[in-house]
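Duplicate of #3305? Posting structure anyway:
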């Protein structure tokens, strides 16, 4: 009989976050999050349209265009056009809406993707003590990391993590 190794807690909870992300119907990005107190799972959430409203797979993405300043070797600064969907409520936002503050005090949020700036602000005020993520969001990394340090919230990436089969959706855009 082969020896089976037991997953560590980070892998176990991140696997759950990736499984939760498979509920998303967003064609651009599937994100899942879980709330954990000690070793107890208290809640799960994924990104998607508000309940009872057609989601992006039914009604199309509600895309807005933004321009971001980026360093340019020749001219100093150039503008980069970015599109983002505003129909979707982020997984972290849904997690905060559907869990109780008392359960969040001192807890850990596992999320497939590093929180964006808006979600990071919300998590910073939520009572959690730690955020664990796998995929980095370069646009907001520096300011989110600085915010978490200021708030004393542990903020760490699982670099060598491999998501369970069939949970990393091939999605378009960013």
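Output from current build:
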């Amino acid at each position: 009989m082969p020896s089976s190794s037991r997953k560590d807690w980070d892998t176990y909870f991140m696997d759950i976050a990736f499984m939760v992300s498979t509920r998303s119907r967003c064609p651009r990005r599937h994100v899942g999050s879980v709330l954990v107190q000690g070793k107890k799972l208290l809640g799960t959430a994924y990104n998607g349209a508000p309940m009872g409203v057609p989601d992006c797979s039914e009604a199309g993405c509600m895309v807005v265009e933004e321009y971001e300043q980026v360093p340019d070797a020749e001219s100093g600064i150039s503008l980069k056009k970015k599109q983002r969907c505003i129909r979707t409520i982020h997984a972290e936002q849904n997690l905060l809406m559907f869990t109780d503050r008392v359960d969040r005090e001192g807890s850990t949020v596992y999320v497939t993707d590093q929180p964006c700036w808006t979600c990071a602000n919300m998590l910073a005020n939520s009572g959690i003590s730690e955020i664990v993520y796998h995929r980095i969001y370069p646009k907001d990394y520096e300011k989110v990391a600085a915010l978490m340090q200021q708030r004393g919230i542990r903020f760490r990436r699982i670099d060598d993590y491999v998501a369970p089969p069939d949970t990393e959706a091939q999605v378009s855009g960013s």
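Confirmed duplicate; merging threads. The mean pLDDT is 90. The first strand starts at residue 32 and ends at 37.
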